[in-house]
Amino acid sequence: MSFTNRKDKKRLTETKITIMATFRLAAFQKLLERKPLDVTREADLTSDFYGKLVFGRSKMKKYLSKESYKAVCDAIDNGTTINRKVADGVATGMKAWALENGATHYTHWFQPLTDGTAEKHDAFIDHNELGGVVEGFSGKLLAQQEPDASSFPNGGLRQTFEARGYTAWDVSSPAFIVGTTLCIPTIFISYTGEALDYKAPLLKSLAAVDKAAVDVCQYFDKNVTKVQANLGWEQEYFLIDEALFQARPDLALTGRTLMGHSSSKDQQLDDHYFGSIPERVSKFMIDLENEAYKLGIPVKTRHNEVAPNQFELAPIYEECNLANDHNQLTMDLLNRVARHHGFRCLLHEKPFAGINGSGKHNNWSLSTNTGVVLYAPGKNPKGNMQFLTFVLNALMALYKHQDLLRASILTASNSHRLGANEAPPAIISAFLGTEVNKMLDLIEQNVSDKKMTPEEKTSLKLNIGRIPEILLDNTDRNRTSPFAFTGNRFEFRAVGSSANCASAMIALNTAVAKQLIEFKTEVDSLIAGGIKKDEAIFQVLKKYIEICKPIRFDGNGYSNEWVIEAEKRGLTNITSVPESLKGYLKNTSKELFIEMGIFDEKELEGRVEVEYEKFMKKIQIEARVLGDLALNHIVPTAVKYQTQLLENVKGLKEVFGDEFKTLAGNRLDIIREISEHVTFIKNKVNEMVEARKLANKIEDEVEKAFAYDKEVRPFLEEIRYHIDKLELIVDDELWPLPKYRELLFNR
Ligand code: ADP
Ligand code: MG
Hints:
single chain, alpha+beta, Four Helix Bundle (Hemerythrin (Met), subunit A), binds magnesium ion
């Protein structure tokens, strides 16, 4: 480019002034040109294309031999193993179906201990005798693979000399096609059999709770032979325009804004919550649902959430393992479909300070093969006894394993939510609502009293029997509780939006399984002592009501009073991630996992080490990004603006002489203020780098995580404070990063 005339030269100077903000301006330019995409649904009726890309039962029936079909159904329903011959048959049928649907590749799809899923595609090709290829796929390839995959976090479980990891087919979750790839859900384990993923232990925990719950159900109904855990997740997320996202390196690299002054208007007016969905977003949602339905994900609910640009979707609940696969897939879809629409989807728990973050409520329940949801109050006294049995055992599990459950959900990103007054606190407690509390109080007051007459017992049962009607009209909700009873399920509300639900579900299902076993042992021993079954159950429940009382809290979980009260009750309150992770290694947790056969000690320790490492690395990355942005973006911008002010003041002095001081007025203060902030930022960044260097020298992963938590993390807030102050002072035209008001109000 050459500049020949004065006009062009002037333009060049202007360009130089705004060069810092080029990214931000260009982002805006793009935004103005953005139009909602036209989307077409696969078919008018959802039922016409639902599950189109899933190798579910109807497809299996069509593509498999009778014997193979029966064997697979048996494996899904009853956990029987599939032999090599059947696997070959399934592989052939699956391949035929996949090729007909445009697949060229297949992959074992698994969930390593990272924030996402993993896949390594192989083409369906084998050599033929003529030097060409044929489409091939065998039972062996379907059932097991060795993807190497040695770079996934494993917490020392895989030494380099035996770094092999294996994936093995999870028959209970159907294969599906994404793009041109057939995806086979698998577990991921080491050569020596240790789980390296979320799915393997989840499946074990589901089997454990199935068995323990069936045994307890036998007290009430001999026809119960299977109990499944259900999961209905509610996924919250933000959508940000792609161009603005790209102009925010912190969002791109850490998933959250590490700086940014709050917008004068954000969620104060509650005008986004449940508001009419913006057109561009609505098109995105339709597209997303279209893709989800093809994959057999029963998404049902969509709405605007509390924070501007925050949204939620929820499916109909499903069996826990399948539901979790579907959540993982949905997170992937959210990311991919968002990009088609010029958005970026933020799954981070706290992308923006000062406004609501995102959670992922895990609605959890148990249901039987006889069609009973065990957390729905029964229609008769017997049903209600069963209901109370399961409620109380869940409460006992929560009470005994509060630290473990917290450890299962508290991560670097989720820690911004918990304990802040917008999400469940870091104190684990359960909300039950007036009616269930009333039932428990009734039992507590009466049942141990041996003098209770048969009439009284009947009336107690009848009282309980009346509950369903009242519960149907259940408006009794508590948004501040981490574990809330909501009519036919518990809602574990503390889970983070970016989490793999399995982490929480493994802890919960295992804890409940062990608790149910203990319950049965206690009841059986009373029965053996000559006490009648109903009475024995009542007695144990009565005891449980007393024991787990501290975990029951229906009040405001955000209040300071609750913090004080919880401490009196002996409940723990932990907001530090490294501290909370210790919950995994407590004796009670170790015993729980080992006894229930979910993890052995080595596996558990390896897994926790991964969590410590993950936490440390996330803080490390944030510290690096903040340091870079502070020094490369913020300080130079502030200095540039300060120079402009100084030029102005100098000019005033030249023209007006001594009068300049009055004329320059507060500009002199601003110049000083900028210097103060800049000096502070520079010093703090240096100190943060030194703190990081020290922490990096620590070899022990746990100690290192603690050092990052205590010595590095506090700098993030301190530095940010000064950057945000500068954002308010510096000329908007120079500011390089899109501001909160821009990120949150463009869609
Ligand atoms: P809300 O926001 O009112 O809590 P949503 O409709 O957004 O409710 O989500 C509730 C979730 O709970 C859905 O996924 C729903 O299918 C699920 N759910 C309903 N009943 C059960 C149950 N018995 N067990 C597990 N999940 C359930
Ligand atoms: Mg909801």
